[in-house]
């Protein structure tokens, strides 16, 4: 609890005020060794801690009037420092007043000149005494020494203010008593009472028997504090019925209450006009009292007095003042509504409506002002914050009083918003459609994805990964191998690169999901689907299909059925022997054999055409460009020899095109179809029989034509799809 001591001023040195060691609850020990001492804050009083006993004692003169002046309460705050161990205690010391100051008059003597013609009842103002004490010790009473001509009149127009008048009760006679010496005594209310005196010397003047007379004994005036210098306060008027110089009146201000009024007012000695020569301030003084003296020019001059009471009216000349007493920033963006951001204090030195202050904030959103105590406001959240939309607020707090016109003040408050991880990474596209040519090497970049996280710092730092948890991330062909066996994603840049060379013949589409994960707590995730279409390249040469049966080596010295490939790789059918027979005299167009080949590529790369490479020029045989059927170009003659050797090349339509070659040995025999039938029944291995009549050739040609149309249609659809995709991407 708070330890309080009380000391009467002027206490003797060494007076014990309290046993600190016991009152503070300290444990026993050497007081001097633990070094308990007083640390002063502000005004110093003559007290200290006794090193031997630990008591608080008076060390020098304690004067309440020196420490606190006229304040009603005189309380001093002491800090006691204990060094071993280091501790601080707070003690409040109250200094009580004693009646140690006697009343004091402004001067030891007051000279007053009064005409012998002054009438009984004439009043002459006297200056009162002052007492530095407070309370009852400063309550003054006045007495005047016994006199048959004068009495003392004390008036109390306002609390704690007394007006003294010396009242003439009996006409004066200069010839009898030219000078009256009176003693004015002021006594305070202390016990015992102290007194102060002032000698009043009254000089009796002769001749001029009419003093000036004011038309009012008290002039009451009200002026707003905003009036400028030179403003007329009031015009006092006194008349003197005497003639000549005895009737000319001169005005002067005799006393000012408070004394600071001497710097604010002046009077024209001839006209009696009182004007301002400074600025009024309601907040400093609200009431001025002036004693005006009017005297004539007689010898001796006669005078009279009146009072002017000036009440200062408040105007709205002080703008409100705003202070930020506490500020809690930055504010997290997930702070709840009602969070207190700042505490502010507001005040206005004016009074009444001019001092009533209202506050508001701009912008009005997302902050508001709340007041629970007079002059104290809280800046609170009234809406949720979003750092990604506004990362800092410049808040202007306005305070306006109730005056007319009102005055306004403002105070800027900077409120930064701190980030929380409330935004998941977001890809620029939900679905990425990518084309990739086959056979690109491992490590080649096939796509690039990008996800943006508007959060700040680690909350916005994104890492990418290939998600291995869904069936959609597996290639739709090629045995349902996982997407990670084809592609990988760089964690920092989002670059998708090939783990191995992609083969269109193995997989045409790889669909997978890429995850973007931020570094916040907890981490947030965004997903995007990547559709990787493998574009076919012409990387496969045509391959001749093997024939049924064994080899026919030895039937013809030039036979052997050799199949040669321009791709520098021999087909598995290269070891087969291809034989065919044709009859002399057969009609043109007779089909003697059919070359069959396939290409693992697709589209134009798999569209095959057949050509006779050898013999060049016009030979007896020709081959169907797209069907591969070998037929007679004309009727065969004996001049064509017993056999013909044909080298047939099969090419695709790729760029560049690839090809394969086949060697066909055709034996020319007699006997037409019967001979061929006989040969067919001989079960010669490797025999390529001609088609059964013209009808079989027509059906085969018709089928080949539809095959060509189908390939063209599929290729056209593929080309149109590529064009549409390119247009959409553009």
TrEMBL record:
Its main location: membrane. One of its GO terms (molecular function) is calcium ion binding. Pfam families: Cadherin (PF00028), Cadherin_2 (PF08266). The chain crosses the membrane at residues 705-728. Keywords: Calcium, Cell adhesion, Cell membrane, Glycoprotein, Membrane, Repeat, Signal, Transmembrane, Transmembrane helix. GO terms for biological process: homophilic cell adhesion via plasma membrane adhesion molecules. It is found in: Cell membrane. It comes from the Eukaryota. Residues 49-105, 106-214, 215-322, 323-427, 428-544, 587-687 form the Cadherin domain. It is a single-pass type I membrane protein. This is PCDA3 protein. The lineage of its organism: Eukaryota, Metazoa, Chordata, Craniata, Vertebrata.
């Amino acid at each position: 609890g708070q330890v309080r001591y009380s000391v009467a001023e002027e206490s003797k040195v060494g007076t014990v005020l309290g046993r600190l060691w016991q009152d503070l609850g300290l444990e026993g020990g050497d007081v001097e060794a633990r070094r308990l001492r007083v640390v002063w804050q502000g005004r110093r009083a003559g007290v200290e801690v006794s090193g031997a006993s630990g008591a608080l004692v008076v060390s020098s003169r304690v004067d309440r009037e020196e420490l606190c002046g006229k304040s009603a309460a005189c309380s001093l705050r002491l800090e006691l420092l204990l060094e071993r161990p280091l501790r601080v205690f707070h003690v409040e010391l109250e200094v009580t007043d004693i009646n140690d100051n006697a009343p004091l008059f402004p001067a030891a003597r007051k000279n007053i000149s009064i005409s012998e013609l002054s009438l009984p009842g004439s009043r002459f103002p006297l200056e009162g005494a002052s007492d530095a004490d407070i309370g009852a010790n400063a309550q003054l009473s006045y007495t005047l020494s016994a006199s048959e001509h004068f009495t003392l009149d004390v008036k109390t127009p306002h609390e704690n203010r007394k007006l003294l008048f010396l009242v003439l009760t009996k006409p004066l006679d200069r010839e009898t008593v030219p000078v009256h010496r009176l003693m004015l005594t002021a006594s305070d209310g202390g016990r015992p009472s102290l007194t102060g005196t002032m000698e009043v010397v009254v000089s009796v003047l002769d001749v001029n028997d009419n003093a000036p007379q004011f038309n009012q004994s008290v002039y009451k005036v009200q002026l707003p504090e905003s009036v400028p210098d030179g403003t007329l306060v009031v015009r006092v008027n006194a008349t003197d019925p005497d003639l000549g110089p005895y009737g000319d009146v001169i005005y002067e201000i005799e006393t000012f209450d408070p004394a600071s009024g001497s710097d604010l007012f002046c009077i024209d000695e001839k006209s009696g006009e009182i004007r301002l020569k400074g600025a009024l301030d309601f907040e400093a003084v609200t009431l001025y009292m002036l004693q005006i003296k009017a005297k004539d020019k007689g010898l001796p001059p006669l005078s009279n007095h009146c009072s002017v009471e000036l009440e200062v009216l408040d105007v709205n000349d002080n703008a409100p003042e705003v202070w930020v007493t506490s500020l809690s920033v930055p504010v997290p963006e997930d702070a709840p509504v009602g969070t207190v951001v700042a505490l502010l204090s507001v005040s206005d030195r004016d009074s009444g409506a001019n001092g009533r202050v209202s506050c508001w904030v701009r912008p009005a959103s997302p902050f508001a002002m709340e007041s629970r105590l007079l002059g104290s406001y809280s800046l609170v959240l009234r809406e949720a914050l979003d750092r990604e939309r506004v990362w800092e607020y410049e808040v202007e707090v306005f305070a306006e009083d109730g005056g007319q016109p009102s005055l306004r003040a403002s105070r800027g408050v900077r409120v930064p918003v701190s980030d929380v991880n409330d935004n998941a990474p977001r890809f620029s596209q939900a679905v990425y459609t990518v084309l990739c040519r086959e056979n690109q090497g491992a490590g080649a970049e096939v796509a690039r994805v990008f996800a943006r996280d508007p959060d700040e710092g680690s909350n916005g730092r994104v890492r990418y990964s290939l998600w291995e948890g869904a069936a959609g991330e597996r290639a739709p062909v090629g045995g349902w191998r996982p997407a990670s066996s084809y592609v990988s994603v760089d964690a920092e840049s989002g670059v998708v690169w090939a783990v191995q060379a992609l083969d269109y013949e193995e997989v045409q589409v790889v669909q997978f999901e890429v995850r973007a994960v931020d570094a916040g707590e907890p981490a947030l995730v965004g997903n995007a689907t990547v559709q990787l279409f493998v574009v076919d390249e012409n990387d496969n040469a045509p391959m001749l299909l093997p024939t049924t049966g064994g080899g026919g080596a030895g039937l013809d010295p030039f036979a052997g059925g050799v199949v040669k490939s321009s791709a520098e790789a021999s087909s598995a059918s290269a070891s087969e022997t291809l034989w065919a027979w044709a009859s002399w005299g057969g009609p043109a167009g007779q089909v003697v054999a059919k070359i069959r080949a396939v290409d693992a590529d697709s589209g134009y790369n798999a569209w095959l055409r057949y050509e006779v490479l050898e013999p060049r020029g016009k030979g007896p045989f020709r081959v169907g460009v797209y069907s591969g059927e070998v037929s007679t170009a004309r009727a065969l003659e004996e001049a064509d020899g017993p056999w013909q050797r044909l080298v047939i090349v099969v090419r695709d339509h790729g760029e560049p095109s690839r090809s394969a070659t086949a060697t066909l040995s055709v034996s020319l025999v007699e006997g037409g179809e019967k001979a061929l039938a006989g040969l067919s029944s001989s079960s010669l291995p490797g025999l390529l029989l001609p088609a059964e009549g013209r009808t079989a050739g027509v059906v085969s040609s018709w089928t080949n034509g539809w095959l060509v149309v189908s390939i063209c249609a599929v290729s056209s659809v593929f080309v149109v799809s590529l064009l549409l995709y390119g247009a959409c991407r553009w």
